[in-house]
Design goal:
Length: about 400
């Protein structure tokens, strides 16, 4: 722990060096004798640091006070570096596009998953701020925004251009709501960008071919954890990332439920997956092998990380299915197609697929919607798959009516 006497006694060396105080505060001493206060901290799992001024302009007591203020921001879930960036922009005027955009991001990021939040701000920093970030948000016209989007289109990232267009519209509307812009110019660009060609995930949806796939999975000779992932995938038809990140603490086998936390879901709301008897059998078979760890499907290299995102697709390739025939995400299309053909309530199917809910607040409170029906549907689906795997001539019938 530093004192003023110790600080004054610090002499320059051949290389820059640091002397710690406490709680992340330290002093850097340069080769010329200059002394800079620094504060190091972790936020969202990343090591960061900020300047707290120079000594003796900023004394020890003042540096500690600033450190304590920064620690309070972190405790409240706010990254001090974001505040610092916003303050710099504020000096140039709180009407700049970048200032308003960062304020908007800070206000709404807690409603999103960590990954979605990070992707959003990264896209803005990379694709938008360098071109219109310093401009007064009320002065930005549609052609200027279109020029930003055209740069992405020219690089072949049309889908990103559409996403950025959407986010910029939200930022402009936030500026209107907070009295810093008169209108949203992004609405003038409707139809200005070519439409994105929807690329559907390869999937097998013909019952006879599904039966062949299931029999191939049952005969897979690879790693046991991979076999269990392949067997569980069609029974729960969650997104591949949700499957491989499944944790043992999320499962209640007595209730026959898997509750995926909001932060893992694409739309940031809790998702309940009713477990059929067949799904529980797969999970119970896997438990003696990986149940003492965190993940149901850990990496082959370390149990502290989930299996690779390429594992399931790689197994499908080894089974002889090309990327144009079947991918891990294809189990969702398979279930959606057949369940709709069987006449199940479309809303129950959509809820089970955890497709986007236009009203985010409604989605957050309706994760258990249609749950009794979804439980019946998931068991019926598992029984149907069993019949296909056995080679039975299973006819899709209307089980909802």
């Amino acid at each position: 722990m530093l004192t003023d006497v110790k600080i004054k006694a610090l002499k320059p060396k051949d290389k820059l060096y640091a002397v710690s105080d406490e709680k992340g505060l330290y002093l850097e001493v340069s080769t010329t004798g200059g002394k800079w206060w620094r504060f190091k901290y972790r936020f969202d799992g990343k090591q960061k640091r900020l300047s707290v001024g120079t000594y003796p302009d900023v004394g020890l007591k003042q540096a500690r006070e600033q450190r304590d203020q920064l620690r309070k921001q972190i405790a409240n879930g706010v990254d001090p570096s974001d505040i610092r960036k916003a303050e710099k922009l504020s000096n140039a005027g709180q009407l700049s596009f970048e200032f308003v955009a960062r304020e908007w991001h800070q206000k709404f990021k807690h409603r999103w998953s960590e990954k979605y939040s990070l992707n959003t701000i990264n896209r803005l920093e990379r694709e938008v701020f360098p071109f219109i970030g310093s401009k007064n948000i009320n002065d930005i016209k549609a052609p200027e925004l279109l020029a930003v989007l055209r740069r992405m289109e020219a690089r072949g990232i049309l889908e990103t251009a559409h996403r950025v267009h959407q986010k910029c519209g939200q930022i402009f509307r936030y500026a209107v709501a907070t009295g810093r812009a008169e209108r949203d110019p992004s609405t003038d660009l409707k139809g200005a960008l070519p439409s994105v060609k929807v690329k559907h995930h390869a999937s097998i949806i013909e019952p006879q071919q599904i039966g062949g796939l299931l029999r191939a999975i049952n005969g897979y000779s690879g790693a046991f954890v991979t076999i269990c992932a392949l067997r569980l995938a069609p029974l729960v038809f969650v997104r591949p990332g949700e499957l491989r990140h499944a944790e043992w603490t999320e499962f209640d086998l007595e209730k026959a439920e898997w509750r995926i936390p909001a932060e893992k879901m694409k739309m940031a709301s809790v998702h309940i997956v009713p477990l059929s008897k067949q799904a529980i059998t797969v999970i119970e078979t896997l438990k003696p092998l990986t149940g003492s760890g965190k993940y149901l499907f850990p990496s082959i290299r370390t149990i502290t990380r989930p299996m690779s995102e390429n594992t399931v697709n790689g197994a499908l390739r080894r089974l002889g299915y090309t990327g144009d025939e079947m991918v891990g995400h294809g189990f969702r299309s398979m279930a959606s197609t057949i369940l709709n053909e069987q006449g199940w309530n479309r809303d129950a199917i959509e809820r089970q697929l955890a497709h986007s809910e236009r009203d985010g607040v409604r989605a957050a409170y309706n994760y258990a919607e249609y749950l009794p029906e979804r439980k019946r549907m998931m068991q019926s689906w598992a029984d149907y798959l069993d019949g296909l795997a056995a080679g039975a001539d299973v006819i899709a019938i209307n089980k909802y009516k």
